[in-house]
């Protein structure tokens, strides 16, 4: 499915135009928040074992540092509504024109009944965060809704920055809620890549989510093969390919990309272009995972 309107471009499981000859590359610093939860502090959600988020969370931090990004990690008990939104406010204050603001999340995602009658399906996508007592309930109070997430970013990150959200969680297709007026009014350059649609679940592997693994492999390929850099669209296309190569039998998740008003996936060059050392470490981390080709 591909849609292209005056406000939001979206593609799900279909290659996008990734031509990089018109890629915008104005440099700028990279500010990257890496948020993760394994729910080891909430046995109701963790079950017998914590969620397998830590390997991907650590890999994303390593990726950022190898790209000279300013990395801000938060994990488990720090991942409350106040913790996440305060971090967005703190980091957003540092972001200047043409800088990159990147937000990565790995954990549970779900849906809540829409509380402002703005969602066509009557549901808000949400990050399943923790409360002050380290529990995920009551969900109506401790989960971060998509509209509140969008508000936190648009109120704290300059409109002249470039914004990218990477969401490895269930029900995350529209987690940025780019149809909200706050994005259009600010004329933001914002994109998101999510591990699945709003109606789907995202699979884990024991060493990170399927989406995070596919994204890691895609970036490895790009940095080895494309010396002049690569667009966000190129990374998205290769992430689709890697997911298909390594997907688990019996489970399907449709990786989704969304772009704000008039922006296209080919328009921005992804700043995450690591050195060979990252490729080596990524291969070591991913080696030994049971996959079905």
Automatic annotation (TrEMBL):
Output the Gene3D superfamilies linked to this UniProt entry. 3.40.50.1460
The protein depicted here goes by the name Metacaspase
UniProt family annotation: Belongs to the peptidase C14B family.
> What is the species listed in this Swiss-Prot or TrEMBL entry?
Margalefidinium polykrikoides
All copies of domain Peptidase C14 caspase, residue ranges: 83-244
Would you name any one GO CC term?
Answer: cytoplasm
Signal sequence: where? none
Q: A Pfam family this protein belongs to? A: Peptidase_C14
